[in-house]
TrEMBL record:
PROSITE patterns: AAA. CDD domains: RecA-like_BCS1. It comes from Eruca vesicaria subsp. sativa (Garden rocket). Residues 242-389 form the AAA+ ATPase domain. Its cofactor is Mg(2+). This is AAA+ ATPase domain-containing protein. Belongs to the AAA ATPase family. BCS1 subfamily. One of its GO terms (biological process) is response to stress. It catalyses: ATP + H2O = ADP + phosphate + H(+). It holds the Pfam family AAA. GO terms for molecular function: ATP binding; hydrolase activity.
């Protein structure tokens, strides 16, 4: 009886075929209506929403996307991950690994290992399995195309909130600890073709201990740097950006670059060396400088050759035209970075984008700079890197010549000569390195200074002869 009822409920083959035919006709009709009446973009949107809904419903995983760039600045979470993940290379699941070695001092030093694109790295946080993947794609920027990098961090959905609240904080603290313990400073240069900063290990050995400089100037600078380093609360209290500006000016060969190296080594700051000539306009300048890191030195050398001179202002005053407008016209023709754009990063609103920054400008001709750059608050400290003095000479002689104390008889005439003629520390060093024998080196320096004195006396006598 039961089997009879069961067989009666089973539809016949013709009924099933009829239902299938009706369903197929309805599907074809629906697809035709969808294709004919609904625009392609709207149709794709509907389909994608359906896919997203069902995939998210059935997919047990959740993925965080961490892009390298965040607005104008580097995404600090990306930077923290990039620093932290190389410590987990034992958990890499792909068959490749980046191997890098940039220690020019020691070619046998242990290489550093990095994360290649599409590599998967496994991590465990409080028992939660995590998977990191580095990805990259080409992106069209404002000035040129560049590679856009980003991380995918995948976990189970039920752990999403814990990862958001605790794990990202954990990797931020871990990366900060790693960066603090790193021995090597870096020097960065901007690559306009790749729209990014490129770096190398900074290996300059100059320190304040080895720097040949007037003692009172050196000590004053060191006190100023110490006050800046410890002044975070002070700058916050007075409502100023935590930055300090230095102008190093003087003739070529007087040690401006060496002083920058000494500051970097003293403060343990990396250097961002920016060539303004490679920057297209003010907007690009903002994007470049906001990509620098906290606790760093921004170096702009030969400022008088970078469109910051006062020549156009003087010319416009002679012609009766407003100096600032004339300078803007000149910049548009010759160089797109304007003075106002540069000043915005010295003391304008954009100067607060990076904390604990030292800005160093160098120039051989301070008198050529636009007065707007020299106002208080823009370049806080002006340091004259002058010609060699007796004190500087003694410091150089002790560093470059062994047993120099036995040649005091030559010191007095050389020191007297430095009061009469001008010679740069670079010129003095060149003569001191001629021989390791102090007697030979000092005599050669004396002859060099005497020849300079003769040239000076000859030049001074020429106007008198012309007047006669």
């Amino acid at each position: 009886m039961a089997s009879t009822l069961f067989t009666q409920k089973i539809p016949s083959a013709s009924t099933i075929f009829s239902f299938y035919t009706s369903l197929s006709a309805f599907t074809i009709l629906f697809r035709t209506i969808l294709n004919e009446l609904i625009p392609t973009k709207v149709r794709d949107f509907i389909v994608s929403r359906f896919k997203d809904h069902f995939s998210s419903y059935f997919n047990p995983n959740f993925t965080f996307i961490i892009e390298e760039q965040c607005d104008y600045v580097t995404n600090q979470t990306f930077r923290a991950a990039e620093t932290y993940l190389p410590t987990l290379l034992a958990g890499i699941t792909t068959g490749s690994l980046l191997v890098r070695s940039s220690n020019l001092k020691n070619p046998l030093a242990k290489p550093k290992f990095g994360i290649p694109v599409k590599a998967k790295i496994l991590d465990v946080f409080e028992g939660i399995p995590l998977e990191w993947t580095l990805l990259s794609e080409k992106s069209e920027g404002l000035y040129q195309s560049r590679q856009k990098r980003y991380f995918h961090l995948t976990c189970k959905k039920e752990f999403r909130d814990k990862i958001m609240s605790e794990y990202f904080t954990y990797i931020a603290k871990s990366s900060a600890k790693i960066l603090t313990s790193q021995d090597n400073l870096k020097i960065h240069t901007y690559n306009p073709s790749d729209y990014s900063w490129e770096s190398a290990i900074f290996q300059h050995n100059t320190t304040f201990e080895t720097l040949a400089m007037e003692p009172e100037v050196k000590n004053s600078l060191m006190r100023d740097l110490d006050a800046f380093s410890n002044g975070k609360d002070f700058f916050k209290t007075v409502g100023r950006a935590w930055k300090r500006g230095y102008l190093l000016h003087g003739p070529p060969g007087t040690g401006k670059s060496s002083l920058v190296a000494a500051i970097a080594n003293y403060m343990n700051y990396s250097i961002y060396d920016l060539q303004l000539q490679s920057v297209k306009d003010d907007a690009m300048l903002r994007q470049i400088l906001t990509k620098t890191e906290n606790g760093s030195i921004l170096l702009i050398e030969d400022l008088d050759c970078s469109g910051a001179d006062a020549s156009c202002r003087k010319k416009s005053e002679d012609e009766g035209e407003d100096g600032e407008n004339q300078c803007k016209k000149k910049k548009k023709k010759d160089h797109q970075v304007t003075l106002s754009g540069l000043l915005n990063f010295v003391d304008g609103l954009w100067s607060s984008c990076v904390e604990e920054r030292i800005i160093v400008f160098t120039t051989n001709h301070k008198e050529k700079l636009d007065p707007a750059l020299l106002r208080p608050g823009r370049m806080d400290v002006h340091i004259l890197m002058d010609y060699c003095t007796p004190n500087v000479f003694k410091k150089l002689a002790k560093m470059y010549l062994d047993g120099i104390e036995e040649h005091d008889d030559l010191f007095e005439p050389i020191e007297k000569m430095f009061r009469e003629v001008k010679a740069t520390p670079a010129e003095v060093i060149e003569r001191l390195m001629v021989s390791k024998d102090p007697d030979v080196a000092l005599k050669g320096l004396m002859e060099f200074l005497e020849s300079k004195k003769m040239v000076k006396e000859s030049e001074e006598s020429e106007p008198k002869e012309a007047d006669e």
